[in-house]
Each structure stands twice: as C-alpha cells, then as structure tokens.
Specification:
Layout: H1 6-62, H2 68-79, E1 82-89, E2 96-102, H3 108-111, H4 115-123, E3 127-133, E4 136-145, E5 150-157, H5 159-209, H6 224-271, H7 278-309, E6 318-321, H8 322-332, H9 334-339, E7 343-348, E8 353-356, H10 358-374, E9 381-389, E10 392-399, H11 406-409, H12 430-440, E11 444-450, E12 453-461
Parallel strand pairs: 7-9
Antiparallel strand pairs: 1-2, 1-5, 3-4, 4-5, 6-8, 9-10, 10-12, 11-12
Helix pairs in contact: 1-2, 1-5, 5-6, 6-7, 7-12, 8-10, 10-12
Bound molecules: adenosine-5'-triphosphate and magnesium ion.
C-alpha cells in the first residue's frame, strides 16, 4: 500500500494500528466476560436465597404459620430482592400466574406478565434470567413452591453490576485513547529520527553519484541504518580510490604517450632537412625507429591493461613447459644481453609443467627477464630457473644486480611505478601486467630483493601432480 508522507507517517500509523488493535482486543475480551460474570454471580446468589426461602416457605406452610405478606417482607429483607409469590392457574403448559403477595406491595398486571415466573410455573423448575423492565435491567430467579403449587420470584436490579462494567469500559476507552495518542507521538518522533538519518544517507548517496567523494558518510547508530552508512562510506572510499586511479592512469598514459611523440616529431623535422649527411640521417632514423618501437610497446601494454580491466582478455589453459619458456625467452633476449654485457643462464627442471597460457607465460617471463637486463648494470648475471614446487611450478628470474630498495619493493607492481633514479627508463607497466596476467591464470608474481640478489618468481598451478618423462632438449 502506498501511503503518502514517507516513513514518518507509515511508522506512526503502524504503531497506532498495533496499539489500537491490542486495546480493542483486550476490550472485546474483558468487557463482555466481566459483565457475564458479575450477572452470573448475582443470579447464583439469588438462586441460593430462593432455594433457602422455598424450604422456609414449605416449613411454615407445614406448620400452618405461613402468612404471605410477612413472608415476602422477611424474604425481601434477607435476599435484598423484590419477592413475589404467585398462584398458578390454568391447564398444563399454558398456566397463568396471579400475584398473591409482593414485597414491593405493587402486584398487579405488570408483574403477572413476568416471563421468568411464567416459565417456572409452566415448566415446574427453577428459572433464572436477566430481564428488562421499563428500561432497567434485573436479575431474576423463579422457583416452584412444590407444596402449594405456587411460584416464588426473586427480582433484583443489576444496575450496580452494570455500573461497575461501565466504569471499566470508560477506563479502558480512556486508556485506549491515551495509548493511541502516545503511540502516535512516539511513532512520529522515532520515525522522524530514522527518516532524518535515511535522508542524510540519501543525500550522501546523491553526492557520491555526482562524483563528490570527499565528505564522509557518518551515522553513529549501531543498527541497520548505521551499518548501511558504514557500507556507504566504504563504498565512497573505494570509489574515491578507483576515481583517483582512473585519473592517474589517464594522466600517466597521456604523459607516456606524449614523450615519444614529441621526440618523434622533433626527429622528423630534423630529417626533413635536406643538408643532413648520411651518417646523421641514419642515426636519426634509428632513434626514430626506437621511439616508434617504444610507442608500439606502450600502446600494446595499455591495450592489454584495458582489456584486463574490462575482462575481455582471452586466457588459454594448456600444458606449458616452463623450461621451454625459459629457453625461448633467453634466446629472444640474447642479443640485448650481449649488447649490454649481461650473461643469461637457464637452469631448467624438465618436470616443471604448468597449466596456463603459453603466450602469456612467455610475456611474463619476458617482462621479468627484460627488467633484469635493463635495470641492472653491465656484468650482471641473469638466471632463469624453472622448477617444480609440489602442486605448483615456478619460473624464477634471478639477478645479482644492486636490487630494489625495500621502500620501493611493495610498489613495483603498481601501474606506471618506476624506481626513481633507475638505470633505464620504462613506462612502469611491465610488472603490473605480469602480476595481473598471472592472477588470471591462477598464479602469482612475487619479488624478493637485496643488494646482489633479486628474484622475481612466477608461480603457476602444475599441469598435473604426476611427474613427466623428461623431454629431450632441442639442439
Ligand atoms: N631486476 C630488477 N632490478 C632492479 N630494479 C628492478 C628490477 N626489475 C624491476 N625493477 C624496478 O621496478 C620498476 C618497475 O618495473 P616494470 O617492469 O613494471 O616497469 P619498467 O621496466 O620501468 O617499464 P616497462 O616494463 O613498462 O617498460 C622498474 O622501473 C625498475 O625500477
Ligand atoms: Mg619492465
């Protein structure tokens, strides 16, 4: 049901309905039963009196001391009821009654129509009833007086009992009204507090949706709303980080792209100079080609990253021999190693078969080994090792270069992160891509470094856990 007025009105109405319902139920149960019990108690009392008086009547009649007027007066006094003695005339089942004596001394046609007394006369049994005469209610008991065949009626107003019931009714109604009022005020107040808190949350969500992440979402409550505010705040912090990372990424990427592009533009202009001698021209061409290579690598890296970010990178799962990967990469980088006076050594454990994507494993190995060649001084030895580690296999690239200072170690896997004052300039994407790719294959890339010993380790799930026969080394 859609009730206008928000949570305030809804909660107040709900409380009102609960309190109102509870009190009405109590009213419906208590009032009628109280009335029934009070009237029944009165009738019980009258019946006991009537039975005792019937015995007295029979005794006096037997002793011939019965004087009806005196009897009804005395009976009225002890039973506190109007007492009437009737004679019963007429054929069975349609008898009429005639008042012989009435403690109120009224008698006559009115009381001779009394249904209780007539029923007792016709059915010859004790009859008890609640009747109404002239707008007033009475409890009545009529008993047949067996010896004389007469009927005695005890009739007494139950206005006291009904007044008690009325009092209870009034009190209950008053209590209901008071409780409803309190429920309304309380419901409204409690709902207002919650509505305010929800309103604050809503405004915070709107702010976050508009991209304003600075203002924290605060709610000190320990209840669900407080927990929701906590979740909102965590979401805000996460979104702020993502937003910052996105902006940094765009800024870094454009910066990285601009540098080689500027240099390319400069060299192209110089190359356009017709007076350039052949030697300088070919030097410029070589530099231009190097810049184009750098741009190509950078755009490929950026494409890889963005594909991984949107989850659109295809990863094969096949048997990959890590020793073979180590050899291929070592060979690929052989020329570079020679040029920079580095030594590459491959130590291959033929049991190291991974379950991964061969191309991607090579890409990771290339990034790790390439780093060991370009970020270390000449003369450094780079060792590529494939090994089996229980249910996992590892490809380790070790070098005996100066290492990565501990304060940078935790950050080298971040996108665009480079150690300041490093030997070579890269874009700082190689290790970030390596780690993310490894993650997609169920593996990890980790680093341990101290001066003279730096090791990057790619660990992958083993193809299976049973050892394989060694494959012959080609060549
Ligand atoms: N073996 C190593 N020895 C010393 N420093 C290293 C080594 N490997 C990586 N680093 C440091 O970690 C940084 C990040 O490496 P990463 O491969 O991510 O980026 P990059 O090599 O600078 O650029 P890219 O690989 O994208 O061309 C490097 O800039 C370098 O400072
Ligand atoms: Mg690198």
């Amino acid at each position: 049901m859609n009730i206008p007025g928000g949570i305030r009105v809804k909660l107040a109405l709900a409380l009102l309905a609960i309190v109102g319902g509870a009190l009405l139920t109590a009213y419906a149960i208590v009032v009628p039963s109280l009335e029934r019990r009070l009237v029944a108690a009165k009738l019980d009392q009258q019946e006991r009196d009537a039975n005792a008086l019937a015995v007295l009547y029979a005794t006096q009649e037997a002793q011939n001391t019965l004087r009806l007027d005196d009897f009804v007066d005395g009976a009225d006094f002890v039973s506190n009821s109007r007492v009437v003695i009737f004679a019963v005339d007429g054929p069975p089942k349609s008898q009429v009654i005639r008042s012989l004596a009435d403690s109120l001394a009224v008698g006559g046609a009115e009381i001779e129509r009394d249904p209780t007394a007539i029923a007792a006369a016709r059915e010859v049994r004790t009859v008890r009833a609640r009747v109404r005469h002239d707008g007033r209610e009475y409890a009545e008991v009529a008993v047949p007086l067996l010896t004389a065949g007469n009927v005695m009626l005890l009739s007494s107003s139950i206005s006291d009992q009904l007044a008690t019931v009325d009092l209870v009714k009034r009190r209950l109604l008053f209590a209901t009204a008071a409780a409803l009022l309190i429920a309304l005020v309380l419901g409204f107040a409690v709902a207002a507090i919650h509505a305010n808190r929800l309103g604050r949350l809503q405004r915070a969500a709107d702010r976050i949706a508009e991209g304003a992440f600075d203002e924290p979402v605060i709610d000190n409550g320990a209840d669900e709303v407080g927990q929701l505010a906590g979740s909102f705040d965590r979401m805000r912090i996460q979104l702020a980080q993502l937003d910052r990372a996105r902006k940094e990424f765009v800024a870094n990427a454009s910066h990285e792209l601009r540098t080689p592009l500027f240099s390319l533009a400069g060299f192209l202009e110089l190359l356009a100079d017709e007076d350039l001698d052949e030697k300088t021209r070919s030097e410029f061409l070589a530099t231009t080609r190097a810049q184009v290579d750098r741009l190509t690598k950078l755009t490929t890296d950026l494409l890889d990253l963005s594909r991984m970010d949107v989850g659109r990178i295809r990863i094969e799962h096949e048997e990959v021999e890590l020793a073979e990967v180590a050899r291929v990469v070592a060979e690929e980088l052989g020329a570079l190693a020679d040029a920079s006076s580095h030594t590459i050594v491959v130590e291959a454990d033929e049991q190291a078969w991974a379950f991964a994507d061969e191309e991607r494993v090579q890409q990771i190995a290339r990034a790790m080994a390439g780093n060991a060649l370009v970020h270390t001084p000449a003369g450094t030895v780079v060792r590529l090792r494939a090994e089996r580690r229980g249910a996992r296999v590892a490809l380790v690239v070790e070098d005996n270069g100066p290492g990565i200072p501990p304060e940078h170690l935790g950050r080298v896997f971040q996108r665009f992160y480079r150690v300041e004052g490093g030997l070579a300039s890269g874009s700082g994407l190689g290790l970030a891509i390596a780690r993310e790719l490894a993650g997609r294959m169920g593996g990890t890339v980790t680093v341990a470094s101290r001066p003279g010993a730096t090791a990057f380790t790619l660990e992958l799930p083993a193809e299976d856990e049973s050892p394989r026969p060694p494959t012959p080394i080609p060549g």
